[in-house]
Amino acid sequence: MINVLEDSGDIPEFVEWVRRNRSALGCDTETTGLDWWADDFRLRLVQFGNHDESYVLPVELSDELLGAAVGAIRFVNKLIFQNGSYDLLVLDATTDLTMEEIWPKVLDTKILAHLVDSRGEADAGIGHSLASLTKHYIDDGVAAKIKGSMAEIARSLKTTKARVWKLVAWNHGGYLTYSGLDPILAFRLGRILIPKLPRTVYRKTDIGPGIPPMNLIEFEHKVAEICALMSRPGIALNRDYALRLEARLALEEHRWTARAQELGCENPWSTEQCADAFEARGITVFDTTPTGNRKVDKVFLADWRARGDELAEAIYQAKAARKKRNTWLRSFLESVDSNGRIHPSINSIQARTARQSIQGIPAQTLPSGDYEIRACFEANEGHIVLSTDYSNMELRFLAAHSGDKRMLRAFRNGEDLHQVTATAAGVSRKLGKMTNFLIVFGGGPEALSSQAGIPVHEAKRIMDIFMETYPGVEAFMKLKTQEARRQGYVTTPSGRRLYVEKKFAFRGTNYFVQSGSRDITCRALVRLHHAHLAQFALLPIHDEILFSVPIEHADTAAKMTDELMKETVLGLEIPTDPDRGGKSWGSLYMKGVENLTKLDDYYRDNPEQALADDRRRNPDDHAAAA
User: Fold this and answer.
1) 393-406 confidence digits (pLDDT tens)
2) Topology (CATH level 3) of domain 236-340
3) pLDDT band at 626 (very low <50, low <70, confident <90, very high)
């Protein structure tokens, strides 16, 4: 049953119901959109539900109804949300509630669902959205109603699904049904999912000195809380720089497109026209798609750019300029708030291995080494950026758990593992590094062949030598493959169960290493939070955390983050490498004192620091110059 409070006269009935259900209630919010930071954003409804009954409070109507909702949130012992990070950011932004106050009483069914089965629907799993969980565990028809009701309302109001949240009347019957169902479903899912959790998630893990050990449920909720706290203040966007960069990239796109046209490719975004233009230049060997179409992808373009082909260069540069403008810069400029900040959505538990993902700021997908896009984002006033990342985290994690003697010796003696692999196989260090990471991330000879541009038989030879060089790793990979094939899953040291389809059992090692490494970064977040340093964190980026720290305390902050983040796994230390930068995130990727002082405000005013930082990052360049 769905009850709707229409005015303050209905509040006593709601209060009495809340008193009877104080131990736990499902909770949800409805708003004008997803942009909780926007000036015109509004909280419209707050809903509460138990197993079969809900109350919908249209808080936009009066302060009394808003007060009743806030009072209920404070009164109830356990609040069950589906994807609670968003709702808590909403409540923090629109009421006098704070996330610090609410998070300790939250149970998030999205987190529970991920711990039951980390696979998404595309991976043959249940999925983690409210609709997919309802479909699997409760009722297929109700799930379809959830998925389609707001789209149907949007059609009836002749608007888009993005705008319907602002335009639909609070008392629209379909809207109230949709809203009233959500907390009931969250409550039911909480009760359904808890008994399905593997027993291993209750295993306590040591986080760090002074922090009580946590089981995986507690740990994931704490990580979600810390990531939401990072989203709240957002990151400063240098809007003037972003606009100048957008204008310059528009000119570059036009110039390179014109050059591609001069070389016979009228439309660089048409794969067919690109392929025809290359064939006209005598290049006739292409990889093909499963349907037989010729590929002109980044691997193809990189190969021919390296050979000095002008058309490959023109197509690559035109595409790169357009992607930077359309995929990134335009999004930044459209989503910046009135204070000049962008609020990233940090999905704390995502992917099959629980690796995080970030929307709003593409921190995890930006090209390696590119400073231009990163330079859009700046440290806070009076601060500089600091990046602290792990050194060979996945490979060290693999070495520790496999117990391979050669790999352990390399790390403990400070040897260059990529060179060790390269020397054993008689190849370049670059190819040795590529081999190391491909193996740890589950790639085979075909992948190495494609990425390195070498024959498959040569790639297989290199990988065979890897296994001969590190026999402990080979044995460990076989063990994890057998475990995945026998059980259908592997279990990480933190107790996370990762399902692996038996035909892909060979990926068991990859999942184990990726997920275990992810947990190291997340334990570091908890330690930083406990030490009151997470307030300076801007983003977690796989094996790196980006900070904004006061200039006068930058060196101290570097030492503290290093000490708090590094971790020892089965006797092998996984160290970190702190790197203080300038005003912009991009300054960490700029090379040369001239560039640093020209392109970054902090370094322009502090050229001696620019020299010191560039010398530290690029010692070989300075040694050669000397």
Assistant:
1) 999 999 999 999 99
2) Taq DNA Polymerase; Chain T, domain 4 (1.20.1060)
3) low
